[in-house]
Amino acid sequence: METIDIFQKVIDYIEENLKTELNIEELAAMAGFSTYHFMHVFGDMVGMPLYAYITKRRVKNAIYEIYKGSKLIDTALLYGFDTHAGFFKAFKREYGCSPSKYIKSTLVCKPDLVNLRREAKLMLTQTQLRQILLNWNIDSKTEIKEVYFFGGNIKAWNIGEQYVLKTGMDISGLRTHILFAEALSKEGINSAYQVKTRDGKDFIQDGERFYVLLNRIEGRYLTPEERYSYDRELTGEKYGIAIGKLHKVLKSHEDNLEVNDTNLYDVVTKWAMPETKRIMEQWNCPLPEEFYNEYTANFGRLYDKLPKQIIHRNPNPTNVIFNGNDVSGFIDFDISEKNVRIFDPCYCATGILSEAAEITGGYEKWPEILKGVIKGYDSICSLSTEEKQALIYVIYSIQMIFIAYLNGHDDEKAAAMENRKMLIWIWKNADKLSFE
Predict the structure, then answer these.
(1) Is the pLDDT of residue 401 over 70?
(2) CATH code (residue 187)
(3) How many domains is the chain partitioned into structurally?
(4) 421 falls in which pLDDT band (50, 70, 90)?
(5) Which residues contact 289 (CB under 8 A, 6 or more apart)?
(6) Is residue 342 located within the same domain as residue 364?
(7) Residue 251: count of CB within 10 angstroms of its CB
(8) Average pLDDT score over residue span 260-284
(9) From CA 285, how far away is CA 303, in angstroms rounded?
(10) Which neighbouring-strand residues pair with 339?
(11) Do both 388 and 411 map to the same domain?
């Protein structure tokens, strides 16, 4: 059975059980995936996080029943919303207005069932795209280039040098992105913000699908050579400061953003660590048992004391844009989640380490970059004693997740080998890494 068919079965099961408590572990087992891997594949396949999808379907079915005459509070409770306020908040995030206003202004139809194969067939010609672009006040002759096809139901096109046209099904996620962009813009952090349509709307909607025109961020990401240059600690500090400022903004908007809540310790100990241990032995580069025992004991002791919040989750150096000498913005928030906050600066630093092989003496130079990233982040988001102690274990976590994830990806053999090399080097040189 193909992966898309496996996840169609999960989608159908969710639809049949929207009025019951849905257990993530059971859904993952149904698909034959680990919980962590299931959550990410689901997001790729469906185009939005699992929790967001379930909430979306509950809201859609609930408002239809309310429209047909059911009491709002009774229906909200039936679909798993604990309070009227909880349902109201979820509804407004999806539709942009109150349930009563929506019912008065809209003919509410029974929600269509989701068909992943049908949604995967979206294809638009240049003529169709130009027709869609008439909704915005831009040059109709602007060059159009396809960017990517993502998860079966998201597509994007570069519109000249200034814009990106994106389409998808996750309208709630789009509203979240718009909120991200507006909040970041107020703090001087650029992200791809929406261009208003001719009639002043943030996006246009065609049934379940949205189309939004986004501005492209001015600037570029640094090359490995630029990151490892003579002032590499200062460069690292700029990354850390930018991530810290980003976290301040994301923290202030947590109540309005819906993302997956990830337990990093569980992900590693229940999936990534056993896989890493097996893979390292398979490739004749095993780590001693003391490495795994120390990780489990020490990170387990620290984990519950670590601050958690919404993070970028993928601030690799190609997703951090510089304009001149300073960070001008971030891109790709599509896998943002709630996690330990120090994941992001550690992820950025290990992303830079993955380029070390391209640089003469890169591995020996990297500790200075790491020091700069942590120093910069600490200057904005003051690190606790427990966070400083946990930094090395978060770095280990990231490497084990990559090693486990890349296993079996034939097109990523070089990256898989490099990540195994990175973990061994980090472990052997942990005493040289400064976090003060």
Answers:
(1) yes
(2) 3.30.200.20
(3) 3
(4) very high
(5) none
(6) yes
(7) 14
(8) 92
(9) 28
(10) 309
(11) yes
Same domain for 182 and 267, yes or no, is: no
Q: Per-residue pLDDT for 168 more than 50?
A: yes
Tokens 């690190």: give the residue: 383
Residues counted in the chain: 436
Checking if the pLDDT of 51 tops 60, the result is yes
% residues pLDDT > 90 (the chain)? 59
Per the listing, tokens 């990233």 go with 373
Comparing CA positions, the residue from 82, 140, 73, 130 lying closest to residue 100 is 73
Q: Residue by residue, what is the 3-state secondary structure of 374-408?
A: HHHHHHHCCCCHHHHHHHHHHHHHHHHHHHHHHCC
One domain, residues 300 and 318: yes
What CA–CA distance (Å, rounded) separates 29 from 38?
9
228 and 366 part of one domain: yes
Let me know whether 246 and 384 are in one domain. yes
Closest by CA to 247, choosing from 50, 118, 383, 385, is 383
Phi/psi class of residue 305: alpha, beta or left (left: φ > 0; alpha: ψ in -120 to 50)?
Answer: alpha
| Of 177, 157, 176, 173, the residue nearest 165 (C-alpha) | 157
CB atoms within 10 A of CB 193: 17
What is the Cα–Cα distance from 284 to 7, expressed in whole angstroms? 35
User: Are 285 and 240 found together in one domain?
Assistant: yes
Q: Which domain holds residue 419?
A: 224-432
Final residue in a domain of this structure, among 63, 84, 114: 114
- Identify the domain boundary among 172, 196, 215: 215
The domain that holds 247 is classified in CATH as 3.90.1200.10
Distance, in Å, from the CA atom of 40 to the CA atom of 51, rounded to the nearest integer, reads 12
- Rounded to whole angstroms, what are the CA distances from 420 to 29, 37, 356? 28, 20, 13
Q: Please give the backbone phi and psi of residue 220, each rounded to the nearest 5 degrees, phi first.
A: -155, 165
Query: pLDDT of 150-165, one tens digit each?
Result: 334 447 888 998 998 9
pTM comes to 0.70
Q: Which residue has the tokens 């500790």?
A: 367
Burial of 415 (0-12, 13-18, 19+ CB in 10 A): middle
